[in-house]
Design goal:
Elements (H helix, E strand, L loop, with lengths): L2 E5 L6 E6 L13 E7 H16 L4 E7 L8 H13 L7 E6 L1 H13 L5 E6 L2 H7 L4 E6 L2 E8 L4 E5 L8 H18 L1 H9 L1 H5 L3 H21 L14 H9 L8 H20 L3 H13 L19 H8 L5 E2 L2 E2 L1 E6 L2 E6 L3 H13 L1
Parallel strand pairs: 2-9, 3-4, 3-5, 5-6, 6-9
Antiparallel strand pairs: 1-2, 7-8, 10-11, 12-13
Helix pairs in contact: 2-3, 4-5, 4-8, 5-6, 5-8, 5-10, 9-10, 9-12, 10-11, 10-13
Bound molecules: glycine (GLY).
Glycine (GLY) binds next to loops.
Length: 366
């Protein structure tokens, strides 16, 4: 039986359906004109199948395929998708379907938010990261050369369909990377979830469907609660950025190129946990629990594991500079989400420069 999680946002409320083998849902009607946006990797596995399943409900369906990889999350590729929307005859009543991971969801969502000043879109996430995070909550956008997600819009999907069985055919490293966001939910909001992750490592790493349906649903409940309370990140929603200030800097700084987002988030969460011990009196045992859990889930449990080829203080200036252009800064000063305990965080912390650098240096030495 699928699990349904509701995101309560008044007239923009919607359901997230989570299950194994749940297909494309039943919202489609004969009058629908639909454009599926997907990437070259996902298209090879699911593109034709999803197109046929939606067309079988009577809708008129077209499909456009963008190159796989974060480089496609840009204005030039968005312009190609607008062209595909026009070629497919999409009007204001039409639907854009994002079939893919976070990149596809953000790009297709951005096009849906802006094409004809906004059309409906449905998220069919195919990566764990997209299922638990990026497909829910309406953040859409593209990257600029200066940084990630610097142009975008809030545009909620009308439905999210997360089919756990799809995870079996996706690259294992991508699945593992998504587990970092799952761990994040435990740290920011749910000590019981964190304990379950500590207990169920084996079921999680072999993608046991029932276990993952439960876990994805719990992550979506947390995200739905947070987004329902603070859709536009006026306050509470910032807790979802735990670990992300350093993660975005790692993704940007040269010697970490090639890291997947979740791998950077894992290292970023360790950094945020270390800062929390230093600045917020977080119990030191939390640091070992976080790193042990990350290791058990095959995620980076330190900066060296995160693909840092010359682990050392030399990288600090470029990382610190990269932190300064993140969206979460105010006047170049990063604001951190820090943990008070496993399951509870607070937002908006600024940290002295020495403490930022020393914490990094301690981590690359350990
Ligand atoms: N991924 C963070 C958010 O949706 O707010």
């Amino acid at each position: 039986m699928p699990t349904t999680v509701r995101v309560n946002l008044g007239e923009r409320s919607y359901d997230i359906h989570i299950g194994s083998g749940i297909g494309v849902g039943n919202r489609w009607t004969e009058s629908d004109r639909v454009l599926i946006v997907t990437d070259s990797n996902v298209d090879a596995i699911l593109g034709a199948q999803v197109e046929q399943a939606i067309a079988a409900r009577g809708a008129t369906v077209a499909r456009t395929v963008v190159p796989a990889g974060e480089a496609s999350k840009c204005l030039a590729v968005a312009a190609n998708v607008y062209d595909a929307a026009i070629a497919a005859g999409l009007d204001r009543e039409s639907v854009i379907v994002a079939l893919g991971g976070g990149m596809v969801g953000d790009l297709a969502g951005f096009v849906a938010a802006t094409y004809l000043r906004g059309v409906r879109f449905v998220q069919i996430p195919t990566s764990l990261l997209a299922m638990v995070d990026s497909s829910v909550g309406g953040k859409t956008g593209v990257n600029l050369a200066h940084g990630k997600n610097l142009v975008g819009a809030f545009h909620q999907p009308v439905e999210v369909i997360a089919d756990i069985s799809v995870l079996d055919s996706m690259p294992p490293r991508e699945y593992t990377s998504g587990l970092a966001e799952v761990v994040k939910y435990g740290i920011i909001r749910d000590a019981t979830l964190f304990e379950r992750l500590e207990r169920d490592g084996d079921r999680i790493t072999r993608i046991d469907h029932a276990t993952m349906q439960d876990i994805v649903a719990q992550c979506c409940r947390i995200k739905a609660d947070v987004v329902s309370a603070d859709e536009r990140e006026g306050g509470l929603r910032a807790i979802l950025n735990f670990g992300h200030t350093m993660a975005h800097a790692l993704e940007k700084a040269g010697s970490y190129a090639g890291m997947l987002h979740g791998e950077a988030v894992a290292a970023g969460m360790l950094y945020a946990t270390a800062l929390s011990c230093r600045e917020r009196g977080l119990d030191g045992s939390a640091m070992s629990r976080v790193s042990n859990l990350l290791r058990a889930l095959n995620l980076p449990a330190g900066f060296a594991d995160a693909g840092h080829d010359d682990a050392g203080a030399a990288n600090w200036p470029s990382l610190r500079e990269a932190m300064g252009v993140d969206k979460k800064t105010r006047g170049g000063v990063p604001h951190f989400v820090l943990a008070n305990a496993i399951g509870e965080v607070s937002v908006g912390h600024t940290i002295a420069e020495d403490a930022l650098r020393e914490t990094y240096e301690e981590m690359v030495r350990s």
